[in-house]
Amino acid sequence: MSGPGNAQSLEFEDVCLEYAGRHGVTPAVSGLTASVDAGRFVSLIGPSGCGKSTLLDIAGGLLPPTSGVCRLGGTDVTGPQSTTSMVFQEAALLPWRSVLDNVAFPLEVKGVRASERRARAAELLRTVGLDGFANAYPSELSGGMRQRVSIARALVTDPALLLMDEPFGALDQQTRSMMGLELTRTWERVQCSVLFVTHDIGEAVALSDEVWVLSRRPARLLTRIEVDLPRPRADDLPLQPRFQELEAEIWGTLREESRAMGVPERVGV
Amino acid sequence: MANARLRDVSVVAARIGVVAALVLCWELGSRSGYLDPLTFSSPSRVAPQFVDLFSSPVVSVDLESTVKNVGFGFASGALAGGVLGLLLLGMGESVRGILLNYVVSLQAIPLLVFYPLLLTIFGLTRLPIVIIVAVVVMVPVTVGVTNSFAAVPRSLVRLTRALDLSRGTALRKVYLPAAVPLLFPSLRLGFLLAMVSAIGMEFVVASQGLGYAVAHSYHAFATDQMYALIVFICLLAVVVDVALTAVENRLRRDRVA
Ligand SMILES: Nc1ncnc2c1ncn2[C@@H]1O[C@H](COP(=O)(O)OP(=O)(O)OP(=O)(O)O)[C@@H](O)[C@H]1O
Ligand SMILES: [Mg+2]
Fold this sequence. Notes:
The structure holds two protein chains of two kinds.
Chain A: E1 10-21, E2 24-36, E3 41-45, H1 52-59, E4 67-72, E5 75-76, E6 84-87, H2 99-109, H3 114-127, H4 143-155, E7 161-165, H5 173-190, E8 193-197, H6 201-207, E9 210-214, E10 221-226, H7 241-260
Parallel strand pairs in A: 3-8, 3-9, 6-7, 7-8
Antiparallel strand pairs in A: 1-2, 1-4, 4-5, 9-10
Chain B: H1 2-32, H2 37-40, H3 43-55, H4 57-89, H5 93-105, H6 115-122, H7 127-150, H8 154-162, H9 167-205, H10 210-219, H11 223-251
Helix pairs in contact in B: 3-11, 4-7, 4-9, 4-10, 6-7, 7-9, 9-10, 9-11, 10-11
Residues 52-53, 165 of chain A line the site of magnesium ion.
């Protein structure tokens, strides 16, 4: 079950989720079966509001599925796991803590000694290229830098699984592609399993080993697309014909899905 | 860094300068006869009184009494406000709104009118004053706790869940510091209200305390002593305010400009 490093596999088996709200029941995920093999980078893409974040919450143990099971490394996920880290769209940093103390926070609440956790946090800051900013405060950083701090914080516990919910969604296009490139570099070194939500097809292809295309709500798996581009990924990736083919394939699936529902062609934003 | 220091120093210097100028005007006004010396006294006559204050055991009794009235009143009021605020947070949004309205409307009542009632219940003790001070403090603290915790960003709430923090750890390490910028002004307001209401009540109903001492020297035509006390109370208020600011900045170091 374990791959390179301490990566673990993530399996969804016939997972359904229904939100019980004031206006009745909202099905968000219906009968999804799929797995992220240990050490793989998988992207989730699908129409807006189809249930991507919901699926991530299930994987993170924040939301129990209505039926079906979610397993991490072969054991059922019943609550938040210490081997799972999450990165959200907002960096969710603690503004009163320095960058270093933010990165060290997960270790601090686990009771790791100060010297040890600071050394480890400093190491992660180097990994994300922020070694000069250990003593800065989040308010002194740009949006992209803040998100790098949040990624460092997620990696500081050496997770088996990393869940990322549109981590670059709030960044401008240029920063976004740069951050994507950096994330691949970082990930190629740490090698945990990743489930990455995005609504950017190019980003999904560029980063992933595999892309799951989801249907409109409630989310079903439409297709799994194997990204057979060699790693480490080249800088001129978007110019390669294979990259464009894969992009077109995902685009086609999403377009068909929106046609089937009789809505104008638009991919989730 | 050096520039910031220089700026801080000049700000302090300017503040001292303003006070010095006012004192000078006071002195000149009273010497030249523009200010009636019997009503307004003058710094040169107040200053020796000020020195005397500290050597007289009477004032230390008054000071102790005021410190106790404010201290006990503030502490119990802040505690009650904190508990009430957290209880309100646990309720649904609409219930919270209704109950919070009741708490806020307490502020509109001149609580001093309950003094006779409290007096008959608790007798001629410190308690009636402390209770009224506590209620006065409780109002802004309750509102502050409820609003500041409700305003903690959702992303931080998600973080505490993803990290599986216990309630206590989440409160201590995330919610409390996140709430400080909104919470602290209400604590500060509570403290200043505590001082104002305690000294005000001493003025009217007590037989001890700085407020009582001011009233007493007024009735005894000891104008110089009265001004010495007023200056002392002003200084006390400033010192407390500065101390509170220092505490606030320590709690949220990122906010120190
Ligand atoms: N707490 C909730 N209660 C009721 N319904 C919810 C709740 N959270 C989400 N939903 C609904 O479930 C559906 C899926 O939500 P989810 O956030 O998982 O979508 P998403 O794919 O992440 O969307 P986006 O692309 O906008 O981020 C949405 O239609 C949403 O309205
Ligand atoms: Mg989402």
